[in-house]
Amino acid sequence: MKNMLTAISNALCRITGSNVGAQTVSEFLIGQSELVNLTSPAASALATTTKRQPPKPPPVNTKASEAELVTEQPTLLSDPGARAVVSSRAFADFTPKASFEIKKCDVHRLEEGPPGQAELTREQGLHYYRTMQTIRRMELKADQLYKQKIIRGFCHLYDGQEACAMGIEAAINPTDHVITAYRAHGYTYTRGVPVKQILAELTGRKGGIAKGKGGSMHMYAPNFYGGNGIVGAQVPLGAGIALACKYLGNNQVCVTLYGDGAANQGQIFEAYNMAALWKLPCIFICENNKYGMGTSVERSSASTDYYRRGDYIPGLRVDGMDVLSVREATKFAADHCRAGKGPILMELETYRYHGHSMSDPGVSYRTREEIQEVRSKSDPISMLKDRMLSNKMAAMEEFKEMDSEIRKEIEEAALFATSDPEPPLDALCDHIFHNDLPLEVRGTTPWSKLKSSS
Ligand SMILES: Cc1ncc(C[n+]2csc(CCOP(=O)(O)OP(=O)(O)O)c2C)c(N)n1
Ligand SMILES: [Mg+2]
């Protein structure tokens, strides 16, 4: 239906003959933004040609150099659950693995939740740090490009919520499935899309992950279904993906994400019902970042216990600022689904640092002090770094080095995203249909020029 509407919109553009002279897709869209809407299935088809390459952990040294150890600064032990330092600074070896206490989840309709302890290897820790820091820096670059008017239109940033995307990805397989709403840049990255393709999508360039025609809300990768702009609409789609997994008997799960602002919609409860009835391997995840646009959860929800809102579906409330808590809870949830027990619901308590979108400064409905408090007490990146430093799992110098590598990668990606050409106008109508359909409506084929692929 959406495809049909898109096709009709595009056909209307053609029929009206407006925007004559536009050479590129973006010039055309500026004139036609009300009519043209390139929808997910089309862009999804584009993305299937891209090789899935989950971000690789960097090579890891197991020994610290003397210099690193000398320059290492002690940091505050922000995690009260962290174990005492295992090895002394006099030894050059890093602690290869440590165990951390994590916040116990609140549970609903479950006798027991995930364990209260999580193991972390040095390799994992460095990989999680690099991934979360890359997402953070990518979002800050997007903020900058937006303010320079290089990125236009909608843009919803994910900084603050990085532990959710990283923790989930660390707990599932690349062959499992993920679908989310419009705050999608972080998941696009953890599902394997390089920063340059994400930024180029934001700037509407040919090298973007949806060939520059999707933008901020419409990014896809294999087993990642976007990027959906209609609040809540991806939840029944996620249940459908889980139905496909069950039908195919492939033991895969679908992680279906939505926000607190979507959690009161009727379609969410319809999806819960069918998923429970058919015991679908669906992990429903409510990313509770405390606000839906400018409305706080207390003002929008009669019950803010989102993990209980599935009623007959078991639920967990998880510290969404702690990558280890998210990882352990998601593992627990995936095991539940793979054991054939049906769906499970997780509420990740998290926070977004930016406003709702780039047009929202984010400080009229919450105070600067509130944002600052979250940043200083529970920032997901600092928390992981402090844990690793205080357990001698890495040296401060390593983090600094990683930070400068990430900054360089982001700068290079931004250069690509600002120099790559825009897609040509005649590519605008590609990828609307999966097949070339000989469609006729009342004896005419107004969209006969639309091609299934380029
Ligand atoms: C069906 C529908 N209604 C309203 C909107 C407008 N809208 C866009 S985002 C949003 C708030 C959603 O908040 P939440 O689900 O908490 O996600 P967050 O932005 O916090 O990630 C609303 C109401 C929309 N896109 N779709
Ligand atoms: Mg929200």
Short overview:
The protein is an alpha/beta fold.
Structural overview:
This protein has 454 residues and is of the alpha/beta class. The chain folds into 3 domains: 2-91, no CATH class; 97-423, Thiamin diphosphate (ThDP)-binding fold, Pyr/PP domains (Rossmann fold, 3-Layer(aba) Sandwich), CATH 3.40.50; 425-454, no CATH class. The chain has 15 helices and 10 strands. The strands form 3 sheets. It has a 6-stranded mixed β-sheet, sandwiched between helices. A two-stranded antiparallel ribbon has the order 1-3. The two termini are 22 Å apart.
Core attributes:
3 domains; disordered N terminus; single chain; binds thiamine diphosphate; 15 helices; Rossmann fold; binds magnesium ion; 454 residues; six-stranded mixed sheet; alpha/beta
